[in-house]
Specification:
The chain is α/β, with parallel strands linked by helices and about 200 residues long. Helix content is about 35%, strand content about 20%.
Length: about 200
């Protein structure tokens, strides 16, 4: 009897939503509960840009406070990987740059927009045995977290089109071997989609 009730419940749910919607809903709730990676993005504006816009991506040389020591240009690299799928004309700086230098290079390249990023905060907690051997501090066990800041600037006018703040944290089921920078790819890709007005899948 229980098997029949369970089967009917599954069929009823299946009629209401498809499997991908159920999976996305489950992922969202597990993320919100802290079991999976989670990010929270806040944009100043909801402006959109054209899909054929040329975007130049750079990262400031600011080193985030905290115990983490991410690669110097890692956010620009991750942002490039997230943007390349949605913007066919995208280029990134080879190394961290000041805002004026990045703007100059973006203009020289003929870019319409400069996407200037900064790793504002990073907390790299102990997430594997090697990190434990290095630190051996019980209070450093846990999940990684961090904050990045984004400015989208029109190169021709230097007008600030948009700013965004993305706060991310790891999950209890995914923290092993993770670094704060590993949490950045999904929200940066989501930001690229939002600039085109695309909803999350």
């Amino acid at each position: 009897m229980r098997s029949l009730v369970l089967l009917l419940a599954i069929l009823a749910l299946g009629g209401c939503m498809n499997v991908s919607d159920m999976a996305e809903g489950t992922r969202y709730h597990m993320s919100d509960a802290g079991l999976l990676d989670h990010s929270d993005s806040h944009r100043a504006n909801n402006l959109r840009i054209q899909p054929d816009s040329f975007v130049y991506i750079a990262q400031g040389a600011f080193a985030p406070p905290g115990s983490a020591y991410p690669r110097p240009n890692v956010i620009a690299e991750i942002a490039f990987d997230g943007f390349i799928e949605y913007f066919p004309m995208v280029r990134r700086a080879r190394m961290p740059e000041g805002l004026d230098q990045a703007m100059g290079e973006a203009r020289t390249a003929g870019a319409h927009y400069l996407l200037y990023t900064r790793f504002a905060k990073a907390d790299d907690r102990i997430g594997n045995s090697d990190e434990w051997l290095d630190q051996e501090a019980v209070d450093r066990l846990g999940i990684d977290s961090g904050v990045i800041q984004i400015m989208l600037i029109e190169t021709s006018t230097q007008y600030l089109i948009d700013t965004a703040r993305i706060k991310s944290r790891g999950g209890l089921l995914t923290f092993h071997n993770n670094k704060p920078e590993d949490l950045r790819a999904p929200p940066l890709e989501q930001y690229a989609r939002s600039l085109l007005g695309l909803s999350d899948q």
